[in-house]
Amino acid sequence: MISSVLPTYTRAPLSFVKGEGTWLIEADGRRFLDLGAGIAVNALGHAHPALTRALTDQAGALWHTSNLYQIPQQQALADKLVEHTFADTVFFTNSGTEACELAVKMARKYFHDKGQPERVEIITFDGSFHGRSSAGIAAAGSEKMTKGFGPLLPGFVHLAFGDHEALNAAITDTTCAVLVEPVQGEGGIRPLPDACLKGLRDLCDEKGILMILDEVQCGVGRTGKLFAHEWAGVTPDIMMVAKGIGGGFPLGAVLATEEAASGMTAGTHGSTYGGNPLGCAVGCAVMDIVADPDFLAEVNRKAGLLRQKLEGLVASHPDVLEEVRGSGLMLGLKCKVAPADLVAAGYGVEVITVPAADNVVRLLPPLNITDEEIAEAVSRLDRAAGALAAS
Predict the structure, then answer these.
(1) Three-class SS of residue 121?
(2) Model's pTM, two decimal places?
(3) For the chain, what is the domain count?
């Protein structure tokens, strides 16, 4: 008999009932060090006082009105995002998946309104993940994502990750945009080198097409800049954001230049819940903390500390671990064993990690993890790797 919860997940036998900063407390009282942060969602950990206060204050005032009316919290968050990024305008969603849908629509509508309706194709890359909507799975294109869900939404061209010649050749008179993650998350923590991101920006400018960045997982301070593309000194035309922007509350956004968003006029897109007062109040609290240069400097310092300790971990377990990869506090351990085995071994020593493709285990801790917690996390990972080596 099917369960009352649709069984689309293979869930670990863990039930967490409370969170405190970087810690999750299981129903039986065990305390787990959380290096997953809800898959890069809990950017400031669990039950952060500023976020809790923002949510409860807003909950006591007003939850929802709809986008038929002005929403002051939404305007405030949009203003903060415009102030701190390349963007001129923002549309709020509830998730990264919804942000992908709008980014695709926005790019195609831009060229339609420019008198080039044939420009509908979007170039994407192997290993990408852009959500599980019809557009998202068509953009990713992998068999794992698409098998059984045809016919797929047309208009996506899939290229090998890092094949510059193929990218240049793939741009035609029907191309409207290139869509890429500055750091692939689900694909195995694969950063796009700064030189490649700069080259992509130059290529898009040369060909007259749009650059869409998916910063759903790598954005909001995760790499030590507010957004990962800042390391390369470039700006996109359209950017998808979610996960960390709500600090745990479902919230996403599409950021865009005025030019790229020019086709999105009244009636071209909408959302019942997107940009609701609750979500945007929390998002404002997140931005007030994460956009602070001193906070980001601390993320970078702690990222260096964690990476240094992880390099030592890899050296200590050559039969289990191969390398450390990633950027900031978006790191991956390339494994010589099945990633699921290391994740499971972590449960045994009460540390939470997240599996990914390319034989990688992701480490995505809250951005405010302490030095002491970093040391404890690596100690627990050391025990987990040691248990695998001995098995």
Answers:
(1) strand
(2) 0.96
(3) 1
